[in-house]
Specification:
With about 350 residues, this protein is mainly beta. Helix content is about 10%, strand content about 45%. Strands 7, 8, 9, 10, 11, 12 and 13 form a seven-stranded antiparallel β-sheet that branches. Strands 18, 19, 20, 21 and 22 form a five-stranded antiparallel β-sheet that branches. It is globular. It starts with 6 loop residues before the first strand and ends with a helix.
Length: about 350
């Protein structure tokens, strides 16, 4: 909100009709992620500022009403050889097995403008033991935080991507507590898992040009990936399954398909059901202003009465009826006016 990291909660449990802002977290933060443990404690992970900032977490023991001071876990700093380039990170946090939280992250060499790029490199993994706040790598070795680039290369490296662009996805654990990582590397969506003694080779789920998604880990060998992908001119959402630990993947029939736009996908919802698993947004070529947002499960999108979701469509129709094209500057100004009127 206005560039400020803002924490809001619903006024009533399970009711999203009204909200209240709680001024109890730092306004300087990006990529916030909540993880709630079995005892109810909430951990808020975020990058404490822009690119050149540490990743930190804050713990709330009282349903997010108060948070303890930030604890740094991933360290940003200028490189000794190139002070104009800072070591930076992108990270994903999720509940692991028992009282643990997993952290998978990639490295970003953040250069000063005009030499700044979107380069990301390598995959790293570690986990937090919430009982005492300690961190350990995949072999159980205790780690010292906050983690620097040099320390991460020695202690938490999963895969060295070299000069190829690498982007993190999600991390899920199997019944043995072993992590499975989903990520984008060398133009395709890939999977790697810990066998108990070593990391597997990174297997390609989707061919070049694949999308993004999340993992449903049923056992060390059986995993389903729900992903966006392309099949010729069509954009799709569907499942890919492995029963041999990621060596081979089989595509299932898509649950969504369109030739008039593209899909973006989030991560699996907390406590999801087969009917409602993940949020999908559809960007249509003809609609610049708005995206269709859908709750999707194994049987496709959850449906509801058109009247319940008609407000945006009515506004879009009003713009078109007035002769304003969705891609024009005038439409952007009209959109701002619509938002202003809605607030009133």
């Amino acid at each position: 909100r206005g560039g400020k990291l803002t924490h809001v909660v619903s006024k009533n449990p399970e009711d999203i009709s009204s909200w209240v802002v709680l001024e109890n977290i730092s306004p300087f933060g990006t990529y916030p992620q909540f993880v709630q443990m079995d005892d109810g404690a909430i951990y808020l992970f975020y990058r404490h500022g822009a690119h050149r900032s540490d990743w930190v977490y804050q713990k709330s023991p009282d349903d997010g009403r108060t948070f303890r001071p930030p604890v740094s876990i991933l360290k940003h700093k200028p490189q000794k050889a190139k002070p104009g380039v800072h070591d930076s990170w992108y990270a994903w946090f999720a509940k692991g097995q028992g009282d643990t939280i997993t952290a998978s992250y990639v490295y970003h060499p953040c250069a000063e403008n005009p030499n700044h790029t979107n380069q990301r490199s390598n995959m790293y993994y570690m986990k937090m033991n919430v009982r005492d706040g300690s961190w350990e790598n995949i072999t159980g070795e205790k780690l010292t935080v906050s983690v620097t680039k040099e320390y991460a290369d020695k202690k938490t490296l999963v895969l060295d991507s070299g000069d190829l662009r690498f982007n993190h996805g999600t991390c899920r654990v199997d019944p043995k507590g072993h992590p499975h990582l989903l990520f984008s590397y060398d133009g395709s969506v890939r999977h790697v898992r810990w066998t108990g003694s070593s990391w597997t080779n990174a297997s390609s789920i989707l061919p070049e040009g694949g999308g993004d998604g999340d993992l449903i880990v049923e056992s060390p060998l059986k995993v389903r990936a729900i992903l966006t992908s392309r099949d010729g001119e069509k954009s799709e959402v569907g499942f890919w399954t492995t029963v041999d630990g990621g060596k081979t993947w089989a595509k299932e029939l898509p649950i969504l398909s369109t030739s008039t736009g593209s899909y973006d996908i989030g991560a699996l919802l907390e406590n999801y059901t087969d009917d409602g698993m993940i949020i999908i947004s559809e960007a249509r070529k003809a609609d610049y202003l708005y995206r269709r947002m859908m709750l999707v499960g194994t049987n496709g999108a959850v449906k509801r009465a058109e009247a319940d979701a008609s407000y945006i469509q009515e506004q879009l129709k009003m713009l078109r009826d007035s002769g304003v094209e969705p891609e024009s500057k005038e439409s952007k100004a009209a959109k701002r006016a619509i938002k202003k009127n809605k607030k009133k």
